[in-house]
# Entry
Amino acid sequence: MNTLTLHQAAQTLACAKDKVHATEIELAHAIEHGDLHANVKRWATEQWEGQQLPGNINRLETLIDRSELDAWQQRRAKS
# Structure
C-alpha cells in the first residue's frame, strides 16, 4: 500500500495499541509544522469524530504517502 490514512500510519508506528492516539497527535503536529507532507482533510468542529487532533485534522481521511512517512521517520532518527 503506497498511501495510508493518518490513523493507519499511526497504527504502523505505534509500539502499542494504547499509543496510537499519541502517535496520531505526533503525526498531526509534524503535518501542521510542515515536517510531514500529507493530503489533509479537516473537520468542521460540529462534525468532529473521536479524539481531536491539532488543526482539526481528520485522521481517517488525511492521506500520507508511504515514502513521505518513511522519509519523515528517517529525519527523526537522525536528530
